[in-house]
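Hi U.,

Before I forget, here's the chain from the pilot set. I'm dumping it here mostly so it's searchable later in email.
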Amino acid sequence: MQSENRLFDDLAKLINGAAGTIAGVGREFEANAREKAKEWVGGLDVVSREEFDAVKALAAAAREEVELLKARIDALEGKTPTSVKAKVGAKKPPLAD
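Structure:
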């Protein structure tokens, strides 16, 4: 009986060692794959999330400012449409010779 227990103990140690080795190889493969992916993505011309969000905020602010300026122009044009039309429609006097 002693030899059977020792055989099972040795087999269990062998399986545990193999499982540990396989797990280590898996972790190493994953780390290498992550590193290669970072190198590949780093080689691409992409922006970071922070940069994207900053430019997006700037664009939104610029869009808002444009809308405010359009409203201001419309308000100014709406206040004096007759004077602008009169100036545009008025004929210039002929030049004196």
